[in-house]
Amino acid sequence: ELGLAGTYTLRLRTNGVIQLSTPAGFEDAHESGSGDAYRVTGNVVTIGSFTTFSCPGTVGTYRVELTASELRFTAIDEPCALRETIFGSRPWNIV
Fold first, then answer.
1. pTM to 2 decimals?
2. Are 20 and 32 a contacting pair, CB within 8 Å?
3. Do residues 43 and 74 make contact, with C-beta atoms less than 8 angstroms apart?
4. Residues contacting residue 89 through CB under 8 Å, at least 6 positions apart
């Protein structure tokens, strides 16, 4: 529905920057989440992706669970449906 189908690659850099590769055509409808900031405090992460156009002035807060094979984001406070769909819909496979 939001034009989000496809494969995503997420890198959380140690300098607090998210690198998010999105499927072809995604950036035609939404701005990229790549190069945006995130912050981790314990098992909680705050993500500021998609604040320019799709979700202006918002940040999302998620509980993070990490296993040997998956990273899962569970929304604690998320006003942005686009960001919650991308980050929280399913676990991310670790490669």
1. 0.81
2. yes
3. no
4. none
Count other Cβ atoms within 10 Å, centred on residue 84.
Answer: 18
**The pLDDT of residue 92:** 94
pLDDT tens, position by position, 31-84: 555 667 889 999 999 998 887 778 888 999 999 999 999 999 999 999 999 889
pLDDT of residue 32: 57
Widest distance between CA atoms in the chain: 35
Report how far Cα 41 is from the mean position of its chain's Cα atoms. Answer: 16
Helix (H) or strand (E) holding 19: strand 18-21
DSSP per-residue string spanning 59-91: -EEEEEEE-SSEEEEEEEE---HHHHHHHHSSP
pLDDT for residue 1: 56
Sequence letter at residue 92: W
CB 52 within 8 A of CB 34: no
Amino acid at residue number 56: P
